[in-house]
Amino acid sequence: MANLTDHTVGWIGVGRMGFPMAKRLLDAGCDVSIYNRTRSKAEPLEAAGGKIVDSPKDLADRDIIFTMVSTSDDLVAVTFGENGVFTAEAKPKLLIDCSSISEIASADIRARAAEIGIDMLASPVSGNGKVVKAGKLTIVTSGPRAAFEMAEPFLNQVGRGVTYVGEGELARMVKICHNLLLGVVTQCLAEITVLAEKGGVARHDTLEFINNSVMGSMFSRYKTHSFVNLDLTPTFTPILLRKDLDLGLKAGENLGVELPVTSATRDMVQRAIDAGYTDVDFSVLLQEQAKASGLDIQPENIDVDSGL
Questions:
Q1: Pairing of strands 51-52, 32-35
Q2: Are strands 94-97 and 64-67 parallel, antiparallel or unpaired?
Q3: How far apart are CA 247 and CA 245, in angstroms?
Q4: In this structure, are strands 138-141 and 125-126 parallel, antiparallel, or unpaired?
Q5: CB 34, CB 66: distance < 8 Å
Q6: How many domains would you assign to the chain?
Q7: Would you tell me which of 59, 72, 141, 287 could form a disulfide with 10, CB atoms 3.0–4.6 Å apart?
Q8: H or E element in which residue 131 lies
Q9: Above 90 in pLDDT, residue 162?
Q10: Is the same domain home to 153 and 185?
């Protein structure tokens, strides 16, 4: 297994997730150069030892390239687009993509990278910026086994552990299934919380019981603050959740798997988007559920332990 000092790293994308992920590598002493479309968002990482470059192409001499971008088109642009990291004469050894993109787009980029001698790992993650900072990010990975062994110490440093699930795009399927569960659980949690509150129970009491029961989870406890205090500071937006629900529904259609609960959840997410909630946290599903149920909910202004 490689050590963190064995390979140089290039990082592309320092948004809500990418910034703390890259910083974890820097804090561990990794040699990391960074590109972000908006350079000013990457500059604070200089204080941690990061070297900021002007284009993805400037990272071509790095051994390992991490990407954390929003869409399939973004990944194509930073790899094979104008000034993409794979367009230079020098070539990295490995691409590790942590974004949530479709299996089809991932497979296409993997094939194009293989033609020029670059391995690729699909390594989508579960968590958000606060989860990253707490060291509790989880990662699922697929691709060549030898490439995984090269990447494993770096992935373990970014998160608290990585699950290797095999070759090709299998990690994409696992991540899409994960995000279908994320949406369905959040909508269900919104429904039962509204039901209990309309029946006279305070939200924090309902959620405290759920969190301490066998139905509780790291996620339900983490989301309790947002539900109790109606904090919509974005960790994952309805727009991004809808994208992943659509990917899951498309996969279900292709594989002949009915997903009626996912489909209903997608409708609820769309309702929130239609109401103008596009750049807030997806926990706004609670407020939309309350509105649809004729319940006027207010922040309870209670200090809640996030569990992180």
A1: parallel
A2: parallel
A3: 5
A4: antiparallel
A5: no
A6: 2
A7: 59
A8: helix 129-133
A9: yes
A10: no
